[in-house]
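anyone seen this seq b4? input:
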Amino acid sequence: MQLQSVEARYGPVKALHGISLDVAAGELVAVLGANGAGKTTTLRAVSGTVRRTGDVVFDGRKLPRRPDAAARAGIAHVPEGRGTFSELSVWENLRLGAYTRRGSIKDDAQRVFKYFPRLDERKGQQAGTLSGGEQQMLALGRAMMARPKLVLLDEPSLGLAPMLVKEIFERLERMRADEGVAVLVVEQNANLALAHAARAYVLEVGNVVVSGASEELRANESVRRSYLGY
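predicted toks r here
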């Protein structure tokens, strides 16, 4: 997937100023930056849920500026706040994740339960009664039900205890390795993101200011001072 000179705006306010980035098949790439830098808007530009110009190229084709086009192309978006349907059961949430594709929902659910056994134990439970960590697992599981080629993941660690965050990133790594799915993750915890990502982009006020391999960014003095705390 490539973003090519993408701009995005909310009404008169421009949030992205012509950014370009790419994610290779099976690669985990992080987007870092302070609040208001344009990280969430970058994911929305890919999924077609914000007004944008410039091109989003996926599997060699330019994506139309519509959310359904991104979903049908194989892009799953897990927004900040998880976006689960709290009144529906875990099982009903998972079924909704498979709406864009054909095939056995039960087979796909078993794949999800392999990574998140707790969801299997809570199939009939209302999503709104799950813990924060379980809701994040459900959001990821629902995304995987569509058999995506790319997952857009916004702030997966938000509000979660460190042990749960570690568990979720470990499961994410397993899914990426087993399924070959690419991941573009926005994460406020830069140390965490760089520990798992192959590469990263740093945004400031809607512009890419630094990019490169995670090791390079950890060695970058301005990145260390601004985002890594040492």
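The beta strands are 2-10, 13-22, 28-32, 52-58, 61-62, 75-78, 150-154, 182-186, 199-204, 207-213. The chain has a mean pLDDT of 93. kinda curious what u guys think
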